[in-house]
C-alpha cells in the first residue's frame, strides 16, 4: 500500500515532457535540425517512390497479351538505381559528420561537472567549486556545461532530451558531452541504458538558473551541513551516526564521509530523492526509510528494519540538512 501511495505522489510532481523534438539549447537544436533534414528528404523520396509505384500499377496493369515487366540486365537502370541512393546518403553524411565534429569540441569557459552513474542514481561533482550533489544538477543559463561521465558499477546512459543527446556512462571509461540551457527551468532526463531492476527509476533533472541565482546556490552548497537544533532531529543525527547510514553516506562537517550512496550534506535543499523519483517530503521519506527496495526495486539501500521512532527521528534529521 505504501508503495502505491509513494508512486502516486511521485507522479503528481513535475515530470515535464522528455521531448527531444522541442530543443531548448544549441546542442539539442543541432540534432533536431539534422532530424528535420533527414525527415524531409525521406518524405520527398517516399512520395516519389510511392507515386511511381501507383503510376506503374495503373499504367502497366495486366491486359490480354501483355508481358510482365522485366528489368534484369538493364545495366544503365541498375547503375542509376545504385548511384542515386548512394549520393543521397553521402549528401546526408556531410551535415551529420560536421555536427558530430562541432559538438565534440570542448566549449570555451564551460562549467565543468563530473557525472557518476550508480545503480540507481546520479552523482554530480563540481570539482572546481567543491560541491557534490545527487540527481538534481543545477546549472547557470547561457553558459556551456561540460560533462565528464564515469560509471562505477554497470553501463548507464545519460540523457536530457531538451538539452543534449545521449551519452553512455561506462565503468573504466571517461566520456564527455556538453549542453547549454537557454532558459531558466527544470529539464527532466532519464537513464537510457538498461542497468538493472530500477533502470526506469533512474531519473534526473537539470535545474537551469540565472547566473546570480546559480552563484547563490553554489555558495549555499559549499557550506558544511547545518547542525540540527530540535530534539527529534538531534536524536535522528545520533541514529544516523551510530547506525548503518554512516557506512554509505557523507554529511560534510560530520563523521559521515562514505561515498557509496548520495552525499546528504544539503539533502533538504533537493526537491526529489532516490533517483529523482520521489518528492522530498516527510511522507515519502518515511515510506522510503521503512523499506527502500519495496518502493524502488533493486535499491542498494537495504531494509534495515528501523523502528518507527528511529525513522521519524531520521526524517527530522534529514529535513534539517538544508
Ligand atoms: Cu542506469 Cu539504466
Descriptive notes:
The structure is a single chain. The strands form 4 sheets. A 5-stranded mixed β-sheet has the order 3-2-1-5-8. 39% of the residues lie in helices and 20% in strands. The model is unreliable at 1-14 (pLDDT under 50). With 322 residues, the chain is an alpha+beta fold. The two termini are 30 Å apart. It has helices at residues 2-11, 26-59, 75-104, 211-222, 231-242, 282-290, 292-295, 308-320, and strands at residues 111-118, 121-126, 131-134, 136-140, 145-151, 156-160, 164-169, 175-179, 185-190, 203-209, 272-273, 278-279. Dinuclear copper ion is lined by residues 117, 120, 156, 191, 193-195, 199, 202.
Amino acid at each position: 500500500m505504501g508503495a502505491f501511495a509513494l508512486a502516486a505522489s511521485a507522479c503528481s510532481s513535475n515530470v515535464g515532457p522528455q521531448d527531444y523534438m522541442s530543443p531548448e539549447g544549441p546542442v539539442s537544436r543541432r540534432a533536431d535540425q539534422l532530424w528535420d533534414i533527414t525527415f524531409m528528404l525521406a518524405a520527398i523520396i517516399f512520395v516519389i517512390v510511392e507515386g511511381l509505384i501507383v503510376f506503374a500499377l495503373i499504367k502497366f496493369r495486366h491486359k490480354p497479351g501483355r508481358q510482365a515487366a522485366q528489368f534484369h540486365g538493364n545495366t544503365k537502370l541498375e547503375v542509376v538505381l545504385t548511384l542515386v541512393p548512394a549520393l543521397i546518403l553521402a549528401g546526408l553524411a556531410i551535415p551529420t559528420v560536421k555536427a558530430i565534429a562541432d559538438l565534440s569540441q570542448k566549449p570555451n569557459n564551460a562549467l565543468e561537472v563530473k557525472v557518476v552513474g550508480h545503480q540507481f542514481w546520479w552523482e554530480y561533482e563540481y570539482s572546481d567549486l567543491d560541491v557534490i550533489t545527487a540527481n538534481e544538477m543545477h546549472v547557470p543559463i547561457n553558459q556551456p556545461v561540460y560533462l565528464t561521465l564515469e560509471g562505477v558499477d554497470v553501463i548507464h546512459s545519460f540523457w536530457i532530451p531538451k538539452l543534449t543527446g545521449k551519452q553512455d556512462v561506462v565503468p573504466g571509461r571517461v566520456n564527455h558531452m556538453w549542453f547549454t540551457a537557454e532558459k531558466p527551468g527544470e529539464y527532466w532526463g532519464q537513464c537510457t541504458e538498461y542497468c538493472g531492476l530500477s533502470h526506469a527509476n533512474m531519473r534526473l533533472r537539470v535545474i537551469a538558473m540565472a547566473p546570480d541565482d546559480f552563484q547563490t546556490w553554489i555558495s549555499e552548497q559549499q557550506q558544511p551541513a547545518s547542525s540540527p537544533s530540535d530534539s527529534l532531529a538531534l536524536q535522528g543525527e545520533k541514529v544516523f551516526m551510530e547506525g548503518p547510514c554512516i557506512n554509505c553516506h557523507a554529511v560534510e562537517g560530520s563523521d559521515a564521509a562514505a561515498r557509496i550512496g548520495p552525499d546528504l550534506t544539503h539533502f533538504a535543499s533537493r526537491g526529489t530523492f532516490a533517483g529523482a523519483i520521489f518528492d522530498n517530503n516527510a511522507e515519502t521519506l518515511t515510506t522510503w526509510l521503512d523499506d527502500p527496495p519495496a518502493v524502488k526495486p533493486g535499491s542498494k539501500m537495504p531494509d534495515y528494519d528501523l523502528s518507527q521512532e528511529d525513522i521519524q527521528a531520521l526524517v527530522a534529521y534529514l529535513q534539517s540538512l538544508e
